[in-house]
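Pasting as-is:
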Amino acid sequence: MRSLIESHSSLLLFAAVVFPLAAGAEPAKVPFKPSPVPGGVALVSIAGHATAPNVTYHAEPVLVRRTATGWQAVVGIPLSAKGGRDALDVDGQLVPFTIKPKRYPMQRLHLENQRQVNPTPEDEARIAREQALMAPAWTAWPDGLVPALTFSQPTPGALTSSFGLRRVFNGEARAPHSGLDIKAPAGQAVRAPAAGVVVLTGDFFFSGNAVFLAHGQGVVSLFAHLSKVAVTQGQVLKAGDLLGEVGRTGRATGPHLHWSLSLNNARVDPRIFL
Protein backbone atom coordinates (compact mmCIF):
# COMPACT_ATOMS: atom_id res chain seq x y z
CA MET A 1 0.00 0.00 0.00
CA ARG A 2 1.22 3.46 -0.86
CA SER A 3 0.83 5.26 2.49
CA LEU A 4 0.23 8.94 3.27
CA ILE A 5 2.61 9.40 6.18
CA GLU A 6 3.30 6.28 8.22
CA SER A 7 2.27 7.87 11.51
CA HIS A 8 -1.24 8.40 10.12
CA SER A 9 -2.27 4.76 9.70
CA SER A 10 -5.50 5.31 11.64
CA LEU A 11 -6.34 8.28 9.41
CA LEU A 12 -5.87 6.13 6.32
CA LEU A 13 -8.34 3.56 7.60
CA PHE A 14 -10.87 6.35 8.18
CA ALA A 15 -10.27 7.79 4.72
CA ALA A 16 -10.82 4.38 3.16
CA VAL A 17 -14.26 4.22 4.81
CA VAL A 18 -15.24 7.76 3.87
CA PHE A 19 -14.06 7.63 0.24
CA PRO A 20 -14.66 4.09 -1.10
CA LEU A 21 -14.42 3.05 -4.75
CA ALA A 22 -17.11 0.54 -5.64
CA ALA A 23 -15.77 -2.77 -6.90
CA GLY A 24 -15.84 -2.90 -10.68
CA ALA A 25 -16.94 0.73 -10.97
CA GLU A 26 -15.64 2.63 -13.98
CA PRO A 27 -14.92 6.35 -13.63
CA ALA A 28 -16.61 8.84 -15.91
CA LYS A 29 -14.80 10.26 -18.90
CA VAL A 30 -11.80 12.32 -17.85
CA PRO A 31 -13.29 15.78 -17.11
CA PHE A 32 -10.40 17.83 -18.51
CA LYS A 33 -8.47 18.33 -21.72
CA PRO A 34 -5.01 16.72 -21.56
CA SER A 35 -2.01 18.93 -22.24
CA PRO A 36 1.16 16.80 -22.65
CA VAL A 37 3.63 19.66 -22.16
CA PRO A 38 6.02 20.53 -19.32
CA GLY A 39 3.71 21.49 -16.45
CA GLY A 40 0.80 19.72 -18.13
CA VAL A 41 -0.92 16.34 -17.98
CA ALA A 42 -0.65 13.39 -20.38
CA LEU A 43 -3.13 10.53 -20.74
CA VAL A 44 -1.44 7.25 -21.63
CA SER A 45 -3.52 4.18 -22.54
CA ILE A 46 -2.40 0.84 -21.08
CA ALA A 47 -3.82 -2.36 -22.55
CA GLY A 48 -3.48 -6.01 -21.66
CA HIS A 49 -4.01 -5.82 -17.90
CA ALA A 50 -6.98 -7.44 -16.16
CA THR A 51 -6.21 -5.64 -12.91
CA ALA A 52 -4.78 -2.20 -12.25
CA PRO A 53 -1.13 -2.11 -13.33
CA ASN A 54 1.63 -0.63 -11.22
CA VAL A 55 2.70 2.52 -13.10
CA THR A 56 5.56 4.87 -12.24
CA TYR A 57 7.06 7.89 -13.96
CA HIS A 58 10.62 8.81 -12.97
CA ALA A 59 10.14 6.45 -9.98
CA GLU A 60 6.98 8.26 -8.78
CA PRO A 61 3.67 6.31 -8.56
CA VAL A 62 1.13 7.44 -11.17
CA LEU A 63 -2.64 7.70 -10.95
CA VAL A 64 -4.33 4.96 -13.01
CA ARG A 65 -7.98 4.92 -14.11
CA ARG A 66 -10.09 2.12 -15.56
CA THR A 67 -11.52 2.73 -19.04
CA ALA A 68 -13.86 0.79 -21.30
CA THR A 69 -10.88 -0.76 -23.10
CA GLY A 70 -8.38 -1.19 -20.28
CA TRP A 71 -6.50 1.30 -18.14
CA GLN A 72 -5.33 4.87 -18.47
CA ALA A 73 -2.43 6.59 -16.70
CA VAL A 74 -2.96 10.25 -15.77
CA VAL A 75 0.59 11.62 -15.74
CA GLY A 76 1.76 14.95 -14.35
CA ILE A 77 4.72 16.28 -16.36
CA PRO A 78 7.25 18.40 -14.41
CA LEU A 79 8.19 21.87 -15.60
CA SER A 80 11.79 20.66 -15.95
CA ALA A 81 10.82 18.08 -18.60
CA LYS A 82 12.10 18.45 -22.15
CA GLY A 83 9.97 18.00 -25.26
CA GLY A 84 10.32 14.66 -27.00
CA ARG A 85 9.88 10.97 -26.22
CA ASP A 86 9.58 9.76 -22.66
CA ALA A 87 8.21 6.61 -21.06
CA LEU A 88 6.26 5.18 -18.15
CA ASP A 89 7.28 2.05 -16.28
CA VAL A 90 4.28 -0.31 -16.33
CA ASP A 91 4.94 -3.42 -14.27
CA GLY A 92 8.56 -3.32 -15.36
CA GLN A 93 7.86 -2.63 -19.05
CA LEU A 94 8.41 0.75 -20.72
CA VAL A 95 5.38 2.39 -22.34
CA PRO A 96 6.41 5.42 -24.43
CA PHE A 97 4.59 8.73 -24.81
CA THR A 98 5.47 12.11 -26.28
CA ILE A 99 5.95 15.45 -24.49
CA LYS A 100 5.31 18.54 -26.60
CA PRO A 101 7.69 21.48 -26.02
CA LYS A 102 6.41 24.66 -24.40
CA ARG A 103 8.13 27.92 -23.43
CA TYR A 104 6.53 30.00 -20.70
CA PRO A 105 6.71 33.82 -20.58
CA MET A 106 8.89 35.79 -18.15
CA GLN A 107 7.67 37.81 -15.16
CA ARG A 108 9.70 40.46 -13.32
CA LEU A 109 8.84 41.25 -9.70
CA HIS A 110 10.29 43.54 -7.04
CA LEU A 111 10.42 42.52 -3.37
CA GLU A 112 11.20 44.98 -0.57
CA ASN A 113 12.52 42.18 1.66
CA GLN A 114 15.85 41.29 0.04
CA ARG A 115 16.06 38.13 2.20
CA GLN A 116 13.17 36.72 0.17
CA VAL A 117 15.44 36.97 -2.89
CA ASN A 118 18.80 36.09 -1.31
CA PRO A 119 18.18 34.22 1.96
CA THR A 120 20.75 34.37 4.76
CA PRO A 121 22.57 31.19 5.85
CA GLU A 122 20.08 30.90 8.72
CA ASP A 123 17.23 31.25 6.23
CA GLU A 124 18.79 28.62 3.98
CA ALA A 125 18.94 26.18 6.91
CA ARG A 126 15.26 26.85 7.66
CA ILE A 127 14.31 26.39 3.99
CA ALA A 128 16.13 23.03 3.89
CA ARG A 129 14.27 21.84 7.01
CA GLU A 130 10.97 22.92 5.50
CA GLN A 131 11.64 21.19 2.19
CA ALA A 132 12.33 17.95 4.06
CA LEU A 133 9.04 18.40 5.93
CA MET A 134 7.11 19.10 2.72
CA ALA A 135 8.55 16.18 0.73
CA PRO A 136 6.20 13.48 2.10
CA ALA A 137 3.22 15.84 1.76
CA TRP A 138 3.84 16.21 -1.99
CA THR A 139 3.81 12.41 -2.41
CA ALA A 140 0.85 11.68 -0.10
CA TRP A 141 -1.32 8.78 -1.28
CA PRO A 142 -4.19 8.26 1.23
CA ASP A 143 -5.53 4.74 1.05
CA GLY A 144 -8.95 4.52 -0.60
CA LEU A 145 -9.24 8.20 -1.53
CA VAL A 146 -10.11 8.61 -5.23
CA PRO A 147 -9.64 12.07 -6.79
CA ALA A 148 -12.48 13.55 -8.86
CA LEU A 149 -10.04 15.32 -11.24
CA THR A 150 -12.33 18.32 -11.43
CA PHE A 151 -11.83 21.30 -9.15
CA SER A 152 -13.58 24.51 -8.16
CA GLN A 153 -11.57 27.73 -7.84
CA PRO A 154 -10.64 27.84 -4.13
CA THR A 155 -11.38 31.56 -3.72
CA PRO A 156 -13.05 34.14 -5.99
CA GLY A 157 -10.79 36.53 -7.86
CA ALA A 158 -8.86 37.22 -11.02
CA LEU A 159 -6.16 34.77 -12.08
CA THR A 160 -3.00 36.88 -12.06
CA SER A 161 0.46 35.29 -12.09
CA SER A 162 0.04 32.27 -14.33
CA PHE A 163 1.57 28.87 -13.81
CA GLY A 164 5.02 28.32 -15.31
CA LEU A 165 6.17 31.95 -15.51
CA ARG A 166 9.97 32.25 -15.59
CA ARG A 167 10.38 34.57 -12.61
CA VAL A 168 12.92 37.30 -12.01
CA PHE A 169 12.99 38.81 -8.52
CA ASN A 170 14.83 42.12 -8.13
CA GLY A 171 16.70 41.41 -11.36
CA GLU A 172 17.74 37.86 -10.37
CA ALA A 173 16.35 34.75 -12.08
CA ARG A 174 14.67 32.26 -9.78
CA ALA A 175 12.64 29.04 -10.11
CA PRO A 176 9.58 29.15 -12.36
CA HIS A 177 6.17 29.81 -10.84
CA SER A 178 4.88 26.40 -9.78
CA GLY A 179 1.29 27.42 -9.10
CA LEU A 180 -1.54 29.76 -9.97
CA ASP A 181 -2.06 33.10 -8.20
CA ILE A 182 -5.58 34.35 -7.47
CA LYS A 183 -5.88 38.04 -6.60
CA ALA A 184 -8.18 38.48 -3.60
CA PRO A 185 -8.53 40.70 -0.52
CA ALA A 186 -6.93 39.70 2.77
CA GLY A 187 -9.35 37.72 4.91
CA GLN A 188 -11.40 36.31 2.04
CA ALA A 189 -12.36 32.66 2.57
CA VAL A 190 -10.30 29.92 0.91
CA ARG A 191 -12.21 26.68 0.42
CA ALA A 192 -11.24 23.15 -0.57
CA PRO A 193 -11.56 22.88 -4.37
CA ALA A 194 -12.22 19.14 -4.00
CA ALA A 195 -12.42 16.56 -1.22
CA GLY A 196 -9.21 15.56 0.52
CA VAL A 197 -7.20 14.98 3.66
CA VAL A 198 -5.06 17.70 5.26
CA VAL A 199 -1.56 16.23 5.35
CA LEU A 200 0.46 19.25 6.46
CA THR A 201 0.02 22.80 7.73
CA GLY A 202 2.66 25.30 8.78
CA ASP A 203 4.32 28.68 8.45
CA PHE A 204 7.03 28.37 5.80
CA PHE A 205 9.73 30.77 4.58
CA PHE A 206 8.48 31.12 1.01
CA SER A 207 4.88 29.85 1.24
CA GLY A 208 3.97 31.58 4.51
CA ASN A 209 0.96 30.07 6.25
CA ALA A 210 0.11 27.08 4.09
CA VAL A 211 -2.05 23.97 3.84
CA PHE A 212 -1.32 20.75 1.92
CA LEU A 213 -4.48 18.85 0.94
CA ALA A 214 -4.18 15.33 -0.54
CA HIS A 215 -7.03 14.51 -2.93
CA GLY A 216 -6.01 10.88 -3.49
CA GLN A 217 -3.68 8.78 -5.68
CA GLY A 218 -0.85 11.31 -5.61
CA VAL A 219 -3.00 14.38 -6.42
CA VAL A 220 -2.06 17.10 -3.89
CA SER A 221 -2.93 20.80 -3.53
CA LEU A 222 -0.90 23.49 -1.75
CA PHE A 223 -2.58 26.72 -0.62
CA ALA A 224 -0.03 29.38 0.33
CA HIS A 225 0.33 32.92 1.78
CA LEU A 226 -2.73 32.50 4.02
CA SER A 227 -3.47 35.00 6.77
CA LYS A 228 -5.27 32.29 8.74
CA VAL A 229 -5.30 28.48 8.65
CA ALA A 230 -8.66 27.01 9.67
CA VAL A 231 -7.83 23.28 9.50
CA THR A 232 -5.57 20.84 11.29
CA GLN A 233 -3.36 18.03 10.06
CA GLY A 234 -5.36 14.83 9.58
CA GLN A 235 -8.67 16.62 9.00
CA VAL A 236 -10.91 15.20 6.26
CA LEU A 237 -12.53 17.89 4.08
CA LYS A 238 -15.36 17.90 1.58
CA ALA A 239 -15.32 20.14 -1.49
CA GLY A 240 -16.22 23.66 -0.36
CA ASP A 241 -15.10 23.28 3.26
CA LEU A 242 -13.25 26.28 4.72
CA LEU A 243 -9.49 25.74 4.99
CA GLY A 244 -8.21 29.28 5.61
CA GLU A 245 -8.21 32.95 4.60
CA VAL A 246 -6.33 34.90 1.95
CA GLY A 247 -3.23 36.75 3.16
CA ARG A 248 0.27 37.88 2.15
CA THR A 249 2.51 35.78 4.41
CA GLY A 250 5.80 34.38 3.11
CA ARG A 251 7.20 35.62 -0.20
CA ALA A 252 4.31 37.75 -1.45
CA THR A 253 4.04 41.25 -2.90
CA GLY A 254 0.41 41.65 -1.83
CA PRO A 255 -2.67 39.71 -0.68
CA HIS A 256 -3.41 36.74 -2.91
CA LEU A 257 -3.80 32.98 -2.89
CA HIS A 258 -1.11 30.80 -4.42
CA TRP A 259 -2.52 27.40 -5.42
CA SER A 260 -0.19 24.62 -6.53
CA LEU A 261 -1.49 21.30 -7.84
CA SER A 262 0.69 18.20 -8.05
CA LEU A 263 0.33 14.80 -9.74
CA ASN A 264 2.95 12.07 -9.17
CA ASN A 265 5.09 14.74 -7.41
CA ALA A 266 5.08 16.99 -10.51
CA ARG A 267 3.60 20.49 -10.23
CA VAL A 268 1.07 21.07 -13.02
CA ASP A 269 -1.13 23.95 -14.14
CA PRO A 270 -4.28 23.99 -11.95
CA ARG A 271 -6.25 25.65 -14.77
CA ILE A 272 -6.27 22.29 -16.58
CA PHE A 273 -8.70 21.00 -13.95
CA LEU A 274 -10.93 24.07 -13.52
